[in-house]
Amino acid sequence: MKLKSLFLGALGLSTVGIGHSQVVIDITGATAFRAAATASIQAAFAAGGDYSVSFSNTDIAAAVTTRNNGSYQAWRGTFPGLGSAIIRTSWNGSVEGVRALAVPNVTNNASFIENNATNIPAPTGVGAPVVEWTFANTPLVQDAAELAFSDVAQSSTPVAGTLAGGPVGVVVFTMVANKTWRDDSASSTAGLTNVTSQQFRALAAAGNAKLSLFSGNTANTTRVYLVGRNDGSGTRTVYLAETGFGISEAVRQYVAHDRSNTLAIPSILLTAQGGAFNLQNVATPAYRSTVWGKDQDGNGGYSSSGDIRTDLGKTTASTGVWAFEDNDLSGTYEAGEDSELVTPAKVYLLSWLTYSDARTARGAGVNPTGAAILSYNGAILPTLSSTTLAAPSTMNAADKAIVASGRYTAWSYQQLYHLNTPDTTAVFTELSSRLNVPAVVGAAGLALSEMQSSRVSDGTVVQPN
């Protein structure tokens, strides 16, 4: 029996469609291992026999929504160790996932596909999955999760409580500059292919700096702006830990203020307290800082790494810089209170992405013309520095070797936490076993079995095993 089915009534949450004879397990957390997680879940159901799978994402175009990149998935069938079961997934970020698991309530719980026969159909009984793709207006319900994927350890979050589980893989990150940095590589940014942890710390504290910070040439006066995730993100936690900036320290980050242009970014905005509004006066509270109690100007960020990936592939040859000003002294930023501080001029953007997102941002084929992937502290994954880059599917042997040996340190353990119940332990055991197969991990990183080095916690020294 699903643990939460006993308590949801007390919490005032939906129990529609949850039967006492069928186990229902909800999984939330990090997007970095989403493709690997969904592959391992589906393989487990396939091993159990006939199953159905549903997936949906209301945030991206239907043409590109797949089981692996949707925000919500659900499977129904026979799961090893559970018997008849439904597993639902909802990807909301590493720190948010840990919080949702450890502190279930109406504020922290994630949204899942509503459990009914239309949204999560019964298996067909003919050995093939049923795909019920309800793309538009998929009914969602808020529920407590039983498991959560996280790019970082619980100790790297402010979330208290004891959770079972642990590492199930390694996720790899890289430093990425935007397309205009790449476009200028024959002139202004020529030879600027590396960022050190010290340079990054200076940028994170100020939010922007002259290109001379990276080149040492005082003539390089074009500004470099930091873009990044909000503090519910494991990616952000990783880059603040890895560079020694400090996980809980406030940063100054920018977001694209106008994302309507598919090729260029007309303006960027210092992330505002509360998330504030974009240039179209649409409220964007998802950008706010929510985890460490530091909801202040600059400390927010993108709610999606996919949006950063997209924006780093755009030009910033003429980009204005905006910020919010509380003009009416109400104590709250309101639509129309954004102000252009710097008129459009050339700027550069710098951020961190996962290995697979960085490859997508750069583009595939010979001499791709998207974002520029940079080395970190003098090390870069060999494939990412090549002139030809295939579509992201998996890390090749050369990339894995430099990470596994400890020569490249921008990585973290992918954690899978769970409540300490027989059902959730069975799911953890099944998925951790399947995720230890390199082919299942794919472009997300490495299986634990491939690592020849280790670290005690996020951002600490990497040592040989």
What does this entry look like structurally?
The protein is α+β, with helices and mostly antiparallel strands. The chain has 2 domains: 3-169 and 411-464, Periplasmic binding protein-like II (D-Maltodextrin-Binding Protein, domain 2, 3-Layer(aba) Sandwich); 171-389, no CATH class. Helix content is 21%, strand content 26%. It has 12 helices and 24 strands. The strands form 5 sheets. Strands 1, 2, 3, 4, 6, 8, 9, 10, 11, 12, 17, 19, 21 and 22 form a 14-stranded mixed sheet that branches. The longest helix has 15 residues, at 34-48. Residues 3-20 and 59-63 have low confidence and may be disordered.
Regions with little confidence, pLDDT below 50 for 5+ residues: 3-20, 59-63
Major sheet? 14 strands, mixed
Question: What is the mean pLDDT?
Answer: 89
Query: What proportion of the residues is helical, as a percent range?
Result: 10-25%
| Spatial extent as radius of gyration | 22 Å
What is the SS-derived class? alpha+beta
CATH level-two architecture of the largest domain: 3-Layer(aba) Sandwich
Tally of individual domains:
2
The tally of helices reads 12
- Span between termini: 41 Å
CATH homologous superfamily descriptor of the largest domain: Periplasmic binding protein-like II
Shape: globular
> Beta fraction of the residues?
25-35%
CATH topology of the largest domain: D-Maltodextrin-Binding Protein, domain 2
Number of strands: 24
